[in-house]
Design a protein that fits this description.
CATH superfamily of the largest domain: Histidine kinase-like ATPase, C-terminal domain
CATH topology of the largest domain: Heat Shock Protein 90
CATH class of the largest domain: Alpha Beta
Helix content: 55-70%
Radius of gyration: 50 Å
């Protein structure tokens, strides 16, 4: 028996040495460093097979040694019977191990592969209170946690996508409204320019016509009744009167038409204009701060025209902040009037232009970047609503536009 044990031990050492050299890369030889092989690196099936093989080899070696001693006593049949029993028991142990260990580990491996492929609903169907059962339940808990986490991430992604979609729609609406207001502003600018040109021309033509008409009237009064030139002078007087009527018609057409008014909340109107101008403000790196009271700030106005005027002021302030800045809009009440202040952190307005900044064609922008009519149109709109507008440079830098408008209660028909 001791000889068999020695043989098994020597064989097992040779086996482990070869295994270490072939599978684990260890050097085998008399000068090789002493290193330990971690048995945990071997598959469970291999470890169990080695264990069973060691038992079988040991038992066979022991029985072989006994058979040599007992053969003379005619007990060889007993030896072979015992050997057959050991083989049967070994096979039974292997089958039991396959059922209790190998198959359940295979189920766990298959479940982990399915989970790695994205099937987080996969679960291990293993019962039992042994170590493998505990590991299986732990794996199921981990997969359930991953599934819940994945569902939570999906919900958050869907919510973020919906918010992004809504913001995209809002930005698209703001761009559309901005385009409409810009078109309206351009049209108003063209009309204002045309009206201003017509008014200037009518004024320049009207003054000489009045002088000519006066001289013709003097000639008519100094002419004899039967004079041949009297009829000609009267014809000239009639044509002068016709030209004067045309000039007056041109002046009347250059005046802005009456604005249909309705009740509107100035605070809501200011917020709507800032929302519409948000793409332009974001592109320029300008932050907006709206300071408006919660109480109603109603007035009788044309909302579209007021939006146009406010948009002109905001665009002018944005142009003054080339490197970004802050735009502050304050809304308050002074007696029966509403006060709106638009303050920027730009470079301010040159002192020599402060008195003429609302005149047509006056601008601080470079040539080709502005018509000089935006602030003029804004003043006309504010004036048509019974309000006033002025501008001052801030205490530090930047400009402050102050608008005062009558409230709905302060308007008297």
């Amino acid at each position: 028996m001791w000889a068999a044990f020695v043989i098994y031990t020597a064989d097992s050492r040779i086996f482990w040495a070869r295994w270490r050299h072939k599978c684990c890369g260890y050097h085998v030889g008399p000068d090789a460093p002493r290193t330990s092989l971690s048995v945990s690196k071997l598959p469970l099936r291999v470890r169990f097979g080695l264990f069973v093989a060691a038992i079988v080899a040991g038992v066979i070696g022991a029985l072989g040694w006994l058979s040599l001693r007992m053969f003379e006593r005619q007990v060889g049949a007993t030896f072979w019977f015992a050997l057959s029993g050991i083989l049967i028991v070994t096979l039974l142990v292997d089958q039991v191990a396959r059922r209790l260990i190998y198959r359940r580990l295979a189920l766990m491996r298959e479940t982990m592969q399915r989970a790695a492929a994205g099937q987080l609903k996969a679960r291990v169907s293993i019962d039992g209170l042994d170590e493998i059962g505990v590991i299986a339940r732990g794996l199921n808990d981990i997969l359930q946690g991953l599934e819940r986490l994945n569902e939570a991430v999906d919900i958050r992604v869907e919510a973020a996508t919906e918010v992004f979609r809504q913001k995209s729609v809002a930005i698209a609406d703001s761009h559309r409204e901005m385009a409409m207001l810009n078109e309206e502003l351009a049209r108003a600018g063209r009309l204002a320019a045309l009206g201003q040109a017509a008014a200037n021309m009518a004024h320049q033509i009207g003054t000489p016509l009045n002088l000519i008409s006066g001289y013709v009237q003097l000639l008519i009064q100094s002419s004899a009744p039967e004079s041949a030139s009297l009829d000609r002078l009267k014809a000239i007087q009639d044509q002068i009167a016709r030209v004067t009527a045309i000039v007056r018609a041109a002046l009347d057409s250059s005046r802005p038409p009456a604005i249909p008014r309705e009740r509107a909340d100035l605070g809501a109107l200011v917020r709507r204009v800032c929302q519409m101008a948000s793409p332009m403000l974001e592109d320029a790196g300008v932050q907006v701060e709206v300071l408006a009271p919660d109480q109603s700030a109603e007035l009788l106005a044309d909302p579209v025209q007021l939006e146009l005027a406010l948009l002109s002021l905001i665009a002018n302030s944005v142009d003054a902040m080339a490197s970004g800045g802050t735009l502050t809009v304050r809304l308050g009440r002074v007696d029966d009037r509403l006060r709106l202040e638009v303050e920027d952190t730009g470079s301010g307005i040159p002192p020599d232009l402060l008195a003429h900044i609302f005149d047509p064609w006056v601008t601080t922008k470079e040539p080709g970047k502005g018509s000089g009519l935006g602030l003029s149109i804004a003043r006309q709109v504010i004036a048509s609503h019974g309000g006033t507008i002025r501008v001052d440079n801030g205490p530090g830098k930047g400009a402050i536009f102050t608008i005062e408008l009558p409230t709905a209660q302060g308007v008297h028909p």
